[in-house]
């Protein structure tokens, strides 16, 4: 190895001199190295010399500061220039270090081989000083530009990662977390166009959405933030899932450019876990899986176009009503799964996913599917975001009323004493409203009350319970006291449904918040125009704390959280009283 002391010092970067750049000159002919070295020193380069390709590779691998340019001869002993260039290029990673072949061979085959083996340019021997210096300067500019781009790219990645952290936190911070939900999420870029959203409604039903914006990366993620904020706002207001979808579609139609849209799957699971409303807009099938047998008993295909394309949409057209049993599973996934290609060009269609699920004997089905996707002999490259969402309809999916409600509740003895003193109570809030005729089925009272009560601070920790009571009493009146007069299926009302049977019917609510001693009581009275029903059995169940009969399961939440429920006037009037103390 031919290295002078100055070369060694330059290679090890241990001394400071007038040179700001370094060149590695590789040639078995000393005179050639001297000539090129003189030109390079005039241009401000320090020199490292090697007499053959093997020396060049060894020097390059040992250098702490890599050379800025390499001049490479072709024909040399031990290792020729082609082999040396290939080895050095393998060591440079993404850094641009130009290798310029300097050769006396001028045939087309030689020049082609220089480029094919990793060379960036070539100079013919004998070396012309002007051409030599011009080519060095040209590659020096490219090298400097590449360094600037690399620095800018590094800063961009740092900023992207910072933005990604904030972005994901904004999307997920208000998501409800459930023991019964398992997700697999693998973005194909820093930002993802796939998004999962979860929220409780005021009535404690759960709404889950899996959405997929057009494309992937930053452009696909741009619509995620407004959608997530609007979704949670609408859920908190207690809007019906159909109204939420319609409002999201309208917002997307207004906000997104014409080439963008949002495919989506929405699920609203009833708080008793016995049923769900499912909507599929331009997404792969949704699987309903029987727990004990792993049988995919329902495959719910898309029935609606993606949101944001048309100004209006009718969610009812994309709706499925699904009956659920305890521990049933619902599997949602984006087209990043079904369009995934193996190295053999095989796509993971829905039928293949069904086979994986039905052969999976333990663990989550989403994990089993992802394991198949990521097996080393199948995976080539991920082209799209991959998202799987598995929902298990178990008790962990819908937790209780929350510590704020439980901590604020009063004992039965305290409540009895407060009821005795109700004549001395101070009324601090009162509201009466009535729904007439077709309003009974076209309007939901919970969003109205949510708007009225949201600014009243004492109610906030208990609003979930209060809204659930109102909704329970409302639906109880429709399904029992008014049942003989409402001759339509309330769950299947369309724009052209004849609502004449509701003419003259009403449900009237009286809401009061009373201050009794140091406690507060929420009195909710619902009266209706129906024929009533035999409430004696239900009253006995409540007073004796028996199990609630299946016929009246719709009142189970109200019975759980209220201290007193009283039926009057043949069941056409019911009053529920909910009391709380100072919230801890």
TrEMBL record:
<dbReference type="Pfam" id="PF07228">
    <property type="entry name" value="SpoIIE"/>
</dbReference>
<dbReference type="InterPro" id="IPR001789">
    <property type="entry name" value="Sig_transdc_resp-reg_receiver"/>
</dbReference>
<dbReference type="InterPro" id="IPR036457">
    <property type="entry name" value="PPM-type-like_dom_sf"/>
</dbReference>
<dbReference type="GO" id="GO:0000160">
    <property type="term" value="P:phosphorelay signal transduction system"/>
</dbReference>
<dbReference type="InterPro" id="IPR052048">
    <property type="entry name" value="ST_Response_Regulator"/>
</dbReference>
<dbReference type="Pfam" id="PF00072">
    <property type="entry name" value="Response_reg"/>
</dbReference>
<feature type="domain" description="Response regulatory">
    <location>
        <begin position="22"/>
        <end position="140"/>
    </location>
</feature>
<dbReference type="InterPro" id="IPR011006">
    <property type="entry name" value="CheY-like_superfamily"/>
</dbReference>
<protein>
    <recommendedName>
        <fullName>Response regulatory domain-containing protein</fullName>
    </recommendedName>
</protein>
<dbReference type="InterPro" id="IPR001932">
    <property type="entry name" value="PPM-type_phosphatase-like_dom"/>
</dbReference>
